[in-house]
Amino acid sequence: MNTLPNGGPLGSIRPTFRVRQRSRCRFVVLAASLLCSTATPSAWGAWVGDGEDLMGTRVSVELWHEDEAQGQALVQRVLAEYRRIDASMSTYKADSEISMINRTAAFGPVVAGEELFNLISRSVELSTLSAGAFDITYESVGYLYDFRVRRRPSQSEIDIRLAAIDYRHIVLDPAAGTVAFAHPEVRINLGGIAKGYAVERGAALLQAAGVTHALLNAGGDTRVLGDRRGQPWIVGIRHPRAADQVVTRLPLVDEAISTSGDYERFFEDAGRRYHHIINPMTGSPTEGILSVTVIGPDATLTDGLSTTLFVLGVERGLEFIRTLPEYEAIIVDAAGRLSYSDGLAPPAD
Q1: Which domains does the chain have, with CATH numbers?
Q2: pLDDT for 232-248, tens place per residue?
Q3: Backbone angles phi, psi at 251, to 5 degrees
Q4: What is the pTM of this model?
Q5: How far is C-alpha 61 from the geometric centre of its chain's CA atoms?
Q6: Strand locations in 85-241 (E)
Q7: Coil, strand, or helix at residue 160?
Q8: Deepest of 50, 147, 240, 262, by most Cβ within 10 A of its Cβ?
């Protein structure tokens, strides 16, 4: 276990991680809430990329292509894919598919599109696996928080709605493709898994087009294809209390990495930080953890797992990640201590 550096010059930042030998891990990357680097263009191809504000964060894609014009076209296809997913899965859009489900599923089964149904199903599977630490019905209380205007619910408002937070209230019918809610106050939100899904979808699109070197990012969720043309992508995990600092660096190749932190959306009131990672058991922001980073082969799952481990805490979180041998984690607790899963070796002091 290590402790966060106290900011300062780059020379004080901890060195790159070492990865212990294991069955699959090939590590590096990041951008946005993580920090990344790019390669130098070549006469035989070019790095191309673009980004925009979407999903309440900054989304981007960067790739290497031998034909710059074709590469630029693929970049725009990925951004269009991000927008398509956001249009379906954003609870901030009244006409989105998920908003329609939230309005009507308590009154009876609602037919959902195959993509949304499958992601809700994966979310429920993760809820079952984590005994409710990951739970998309947190929105039943979570919608009462508005971090833009520093709004939080009173304890009585939480108490009234807390019983609605329970993934077992989600009734799925795979044959009919329908979603229903077994409690009248249930709402769902895929914010803890949809951005990872978006970059994973973008990566699949690029792979189908023959792209072998790319970095896709949506806030704290990143997916890399291949390496950085001969070298791993080097990624720094953001210091949770110093935005211009990193706590360590990771080398990744053809991997996904997701970070959940209490610094992404928050406000402070009377000395307490209110952030967006809601504990399903209490309806209040999870305490005791500053950030969780998860590395693995699938960005959809690394996204969901980073939220899961944040809620579980250090001890239970590390126990949980041991059950998933292709995934590793780094947890920063409220005291600034860094804890690592078994497949990661902490950097030498």
Answers
A1: 2-90+192-345 (3.10.520.10), 97-181 (1.10.3980.10)
A2: 998 889 899 888 899 88
A3: -95, 125
A4: 0.88
A5: 16
A6: 110-111, 170-173, 178-181, 214-218, 221-225, 233-239
A7: helix
A8: 262
